[in-house]
Amino acid sequence: MTKPLLKKQEDLQDWQEMFAQWAEEAPEGPLKRYYQAGMIAPQTALQDTPLLALDLETTGLDPSQDEIISLGLIPLNHKIIRCQGAKYWMAKPECSLNAESVTIHEITHSELEEAPRLHAILDEILLALTHQVIVVHCVAIERQFLLKASMKIYGYPLYFPVLDTMDIERQVTFKPWWKRFGRRPSLRLDACRQRYKLPRYKAHHALTDALSSAELLQAQIAYHMDPKADISNYWI
């Protein structure tokens, strides 16, 4: 098994230090308490890191204009997925769903009619995220949509450390251009899972995709990462 993913010293991030700074700056309320709870030390071993797989379904892919309509969370570590701790929320958007997004996530207007607005459940979501390193497949989606929501609701950014299974797969799959032959391998969640012979699930349900990302990370750790290495070598 190869372990090629360790970062250079200058690339390491100290999220613990950054959380302490944001705890001083954030406005009073749930977001300040989230930062005050702190983050694990960068020297924490990957195998000892509290992990939480996260997936969102949204009305589109543009955080500046699209909205979160569902969110799924599942706690895990490098060997165990704690399905009994899974959480799932739906959120009624301010704008109407478009036909294209409904085709993808299959969440309808009628299903969202009785759902709360995101501002009514974000405090609860923050509590679930507290002191966790988040596992996602494509950090640009989850982190950016939650950042936008936090700015709108709390007036201050929400940041959190991430293990991005898409980026991990990119690092271990893509070769330098001079060594490439044929098409680049797909980085879609299902395509990444197939490389590890993981079961195929129906995509685009936030809780199922959170489980898919959790399983994928465990496979990546087994094949490519060092569970005893500092988490700072892997989080972004």
TrEMBL record:
Alphabetical list of CDD domains matching this protein: DEDDh
InterPro entries: Ribonucl_H, RNaseH-like_sf, RNaseH_sf
Domain of life: Bacteria
Gene Ontology molecular function terms on file: 3'-5' exonuclease activity; nucleic acid binding
Hydrolase found in the keyword field: yes
GO biological process, one term: DNA metabolic process
Domain spans labelled Exonuclease: 50-226
Keywords: Exonuclease, Hydrolase, Nuclease
One Pfam family hit: RNase_T
GO CC aspect terms: cytosol
Protein name (Swiss-Prot/TrEMBL): Exonuclease RNase T and DNA polymerase III
Originating organism: Marinomonas sp. (strain MWYL1)
